[in-house]
């Protein structure tokens, strides 16, 4: 286990390096001049002399590879640059807004698990019967409904017409209901179908047939043989859903005025605040890699046949 964790952590460094190179190159080759964006956000006139001075102070007059190496040297010391808008360290800005986004994402993940897993199990156990048909309708609706459209419909119904739930802001549990459901709705639909398919596949496996021949009770077979094995692909899906939910929070936070990092980064993109965009990308990549590492560790807990030290 320790060797496996060390190997995974070693992979983390080149991955973050590759992401940083890609994002740095894409931003620098954009149509907007960073020096022009900096002056606009500072409220200064973009004269030729000021543009030249700004490019020199930001290091934009250097070759691209030199700009990246300078940025990387500072990043390794914890300095990811200053926001063009506020003048504060970009990392501090991201970390200030990140807890609200993590809260929203974790609740959306919990809603996905506690709603989709029981429905997927029920659909598999009652295949081609009314519970299966109802979950099919639910799953089809979930994957067909864009999150921004669902969010507007929920606000219109529950906030404007019924006036029972708040439409915007962050506060008590009632503020979480609409954004959490909006964010997790599509993931629920995908996961319901995956749980159902995985359950049906393992319900006809050889181990289940042997268990039935030994006279084990139905629910014991489902709990010990079907669910345990069926949750391997589901666990993989959930780790991918976390990244999907984290990215989807960018849209949902703007709909519900949720004070998270997604809403802040949309503003940074609009203002061409490159240090903030780069920092956000690296932080979210780090979170996603950590979640996948945790998923690999959970594999071994669910299925001891998986050898973490081999072929991984």
UniProtKB/TrEMBL annotation:
InterPro entries attached to this UniProt entry: BPD_transp_1_N (IPR045621), MetI-like (IPR000515), MetI-like_sf (IPR035906), Opp2B (IPR050045)
Cellular component terms (Gene Ontology): plasma membrane
Pfam family, one: BPD_transp_1_N
Residues annotated as domain ABC transmembrane type-1: 98-295
GO molecular function annotations of the record: dipeptide transmembrane transporter activity; nickel cation transmembrane transporter activity
Keyword entries, A-Z: Cell membrane, Ion transport, Membrane, Nickel, Nickel transport, Transmembrane, Transmembrane helix, Transport
Gene3D superfamilies with a match to the protein in the record: MetI-like
Record family assignment: Belongs to the binding-protein-dependent transport system permease family. OppBC subfamily.
Identification of the protein by name: Nickel transport system permease protein
Native species: Desulfovibrio desulfuricans
Taxonomic classification: Bacteria, Pseudomonadati, Thermodesulfobacteriota, Desulfovibrionia, Desulfovibrionales
């Amino acid at each position: 286990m320790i060797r496996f964790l060390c190997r995974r952590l070693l992979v983390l460094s080149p991955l973050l390096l590759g992401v940083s190179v890609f994002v740095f190159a894409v931003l620098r080759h954009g149509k907007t001049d960073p020096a022009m964006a900096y002056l606009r956000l500072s409220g200064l006139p973009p004269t030729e002399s000021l543009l030249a001075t700004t490019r020199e102070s930001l290091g934009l007059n250097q070759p691209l590879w030199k700009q990246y190496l300078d940025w990387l040297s500072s990043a390794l010391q914890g300095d990811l640059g200053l926001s063009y808008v506020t003048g504060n360290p970009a990392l501090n800005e991201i970390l200030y807004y990140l807890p609200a986004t993590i809260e929203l994402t974790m609740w959306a993940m919990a809603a996905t698990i506690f709603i989709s897993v029981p429905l997927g199990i029920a659909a598999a156990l009652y295949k081609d019967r009314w519970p299966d048909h109802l979950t099919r309708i639910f799953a089809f609706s979930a994957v067909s409904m864009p999150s921004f459209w669902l969010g507007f419909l929920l606000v219109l119904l529950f906030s404007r017409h019924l006036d029972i739930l708040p439409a915007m802001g962050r506060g008590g549990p009632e503020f979480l209901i609409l954004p959490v459901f909006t964010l997790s709705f599509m993931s629920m639909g995908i996961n319901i179908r995956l749980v159902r398919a995985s359950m049906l596949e393992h319900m006809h496996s050889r181990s289940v047939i042997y268990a039935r021949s030994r006279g084990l009770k139905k629910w014991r077979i489902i709990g010990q043989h079907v669910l345990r094995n069926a949750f391997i692909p589901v666990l993989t899906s959930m780790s991918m859903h976390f990244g999907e939910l984290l990215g989807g929070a960018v849209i949902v936070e703007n709909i519900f005025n949720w004070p998270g990092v997604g809403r802040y980064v949309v503003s940074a993109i609009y203002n061409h605040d490159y240090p903030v965009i780069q920092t956000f990308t690296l932080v979210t990549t780090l979170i996603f890699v950590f979640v996948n590492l945790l998923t690999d560790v959970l594999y071994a807990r669910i299925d001891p046949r998986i050898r973490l030290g081999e072929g991984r």
